[in-house]
Design a protein that fits this description.
Elements: E1 10-12, H1 13-16, H2 33-44, E2 56-65, E3 79-81, H3 85-88, E4 92-96, H4 103-112, E5 116-129, H5 143-147, H6 152-155, E6 164-170, E7 188-189, H7 203-212, E8 228-234, E9 240-242, H8 243-255, E10 260-263, H9 272-283, E11 287-291, E12 311-316, E13 334-337, E14 343-345, E15 349-351, H10 362-375, H11 381-390, H12 415-418, E16 438-439, E17 445-449, E18 456-463, E19 467-473, E20 481-488, E21 494-500, E22 509-515, E23 518-526, E24 535-540
């Protein structure tokens, strides 16, 4: 995973220079909290690197205060910054470190304060853009829709279906654009705190048009889904997006009915505050999609795309070749067209100039995700991700035995095929919670699989006395297996014993330690939330 310290950026190539879980998915009984802790420690707390103040918004810190604790910012010389009420409700405050004080020293001290849950720099993100047929006048120039086998019938779901709300966290949206008028909700501005989330930059309008431009209205372009409402959430400006604005925007989208959240920006620094918001969104049944980044070959998949619960999207060219700038790596999930995409522009205009980058690949996937929800509003995020990935197209040059590659993910999104995918059978699959864990015994082998995104298989066994235990999980092509072993305390909560993820993708894992007598729980899951049609074998010794 990419743990390099860089700033978050909007992903535009020109700017860059080139059992299915319900909404109770994180309830204490299912054991997934340990996975989130693991992702947090591995992803949010990478090896320490020098802090670049140029990549931090106005020398600011994001600080989460522990409930019932009192934090005294004055003791560190911190200056309070006005933050949205939605952050205060989450216990998050933003402070500025005065220029005469050493930023890193103050950050280190605040992180050790007993009243503080976590403190982190307010990093900046950036856009990720490189600069029968419908009767829409410019449809002939929308090569990307033809490439993903979109049709007018697909874009006009069954009449009477409730519109799907897609939150676009970006630079705002031109709600008066003739191809978007009547399809944009009021939204919120977390940058200048204006009453509306108007777009003075244009990036958010370009992203929104790909998803939601009116279909078959004899003007402009066709959006992927005519049955959506865009929730504009302004979290950034012309160049960068402060992490505090992104976190506020995520919580706003969660609270205002979003079923899909599109994030066409990215950068190198993970954030605990962002990750907490993403976990909450997934627990509320929201599908998250983000641009992978435009920084190949220097960097891998950017954040927020690199968080395991987010669908990360790379960019392809007209001939299905991966775009040269498109960030890639083990956290890449899908690709979509991302070169010279014809779309809406601010002030009522249209164009494809400077509309290249993973910024414009992500909304392709968000649009198709919204089509799936138009057809079946009860779909869960992991079901949507599976349908998108199972139906994706991979050119021969990118295929491998595992069906997943660092260059192309599961493939390039396909609109028509995605709607036809059926869920795999989970008969015999181990459950994901202690109360339904599969009972196993030492000295035996068991077969299971990573059947869906977010899949976790939980097993339990009982020891009559203390003894050494060895757990072996076999290799699966393209998968990175993780073994977690836990016990349950007297309050019914799982307590951490040990998590093993040493060998990486395509290799097996071995867990070995001395365990106390009583009941222990094993969870096997995939480190990147990926899935496979191939099974693994678990041996207990």
């Amino acid at each position: 995973m990419n743990t390099l310290k860089r700033s978050l950026v909007v992903l535009t190539a020109g700017i860059m220079g080139a059992g299915l879980f319900g909404t109770s998915v994180y309830a204490k009984d299912n054991g997934l909290s340990q996975r989130n802790t693991y992702f947090s420690t591995q992803t949010i707390n990478p090896p320490k690197a020098a802090i670049d103040l140029a990549r931090i918004n106005k020398r600011e810190l994001i600080v989460k205060i522990i409930k019932s604790e009192k934090f005294n910012p004055a003791s560190y010389g911190l200056v309070s910054v006005t933050e949205p009420d939605i952050l205060k409700e989450e216990g998050i405050q933003v402070f500025a470190v005065p220029a005469q004080r050493d930023y890193e020293t103050i950050l280190a001290k605040v992180q050790k304060d007993t009243a503080v849950d976590y403190a982190e720099p307010n990093y900046l993100a950036q856009k990720t853009a490189v600069s029968g047929e419908p009767n829409d006048r410019l449809y002939s120039q929308q090569w990307a829709l033809k490439k993903i086998h979109w049709t007018k019938n697909l874009g006009n779901p069954t009449a009477g279906q409730k519109p799907v709300i897609v939150a676009v966290l970006d630079t705002g949206v031109d709600a008066d654009h003739p191809d978007l008028k009547g399809k944009v909700l009021k939204g919120k501005d977390f940058v200048n705190h204006f009453k509306t989330a108007d777009d003075t930059v244009g990036h958010g309008t370009e992203v929104s048009g790909i998803i939601a431009a009116a279909v078959d209205n004899k003007r402009g372009i066709s959006g992927i889904n005519n049955n959506v409402m865009i929730l504009p959430v302004r979290v950034g400006g012309k160049v960068s997006f402060p992490s505090s604005s992104i976190v506020a925007g995520l919580h706003y989208a969660i609270d205002h009915g979003a079923k899909v959240i599109n994030m066409s920006f990215g950068g190198g620094e993970p954030s605990q505050a962002q990750y907490d918001a993403i976990l909450e969104a997934v627990s509320k049944g929201i599908t998250l999609v983000a641009a992978s980044g435009n920084e190949h070959p220097v960097y891998g998949v950017n954040y927020p795309a690199a968080y395991p619960q987010v669908i990360s999207v790379g960019a392809t060219r007209y001939n299905d070749v991966i775009a040269p700038f498109s960030s890639r790596g083990p956290r890449l999930d899908l690709t979509a067209p991302g070169m010279e995409i014809m779309t809406t522009k601010k002030d009522g205009k249209y164009g494809s100039k400077d509309v290249s980058g993973t910024s414009f690949s992500a909304p392709m996937v968000s649009g198709v995700a919204s089509l799936l929800l138009s057809k079946n509003p009860s779909l869960k995020p992991q079901q949507i991700e599976y349908m998108l990935e199972k139906s994706a197209f991979t050119p021969d040059r990118y295929k491998n035995a595992g069906g997943l590659s660092d260059l192309y993910g599961y493939g390039r999104v396909e609109a028509a095929n995605a709607l036809q995918v059926k869920m795999p059978s989970t008969a015999g699959d181990a459950a994901d919670r202690p109360s339904k864990a599969k009972v196993v015994s030492l000295g035996k082998s068991y077969t299971d699989g990573f059947n869906l995104p977010f899949d976790g298989d939980m097993f339990k066994f009982k020891l009559a006395k203390d003894r050494n235990v060895r757990i072996e999980v076999s290799a699966v092509k393209g998968m990175d297996p993780v073994i977690a072993v836990n016990r349950m305390d007297k309050n019914g909560r799982l307590t951490y014993e040990k998590i093993q993820d040493k060998n990486g993708i395509g290799k097996g894992e071995v867990w070995s330690a001395k365990l106390k007598s009583g009941t222990s729980y094993i969870t096997v899951y995939e480190a990147n939330n990926h899935w496979s049609t191939k099974s693994y074998t678990m041996k207990l010794k």
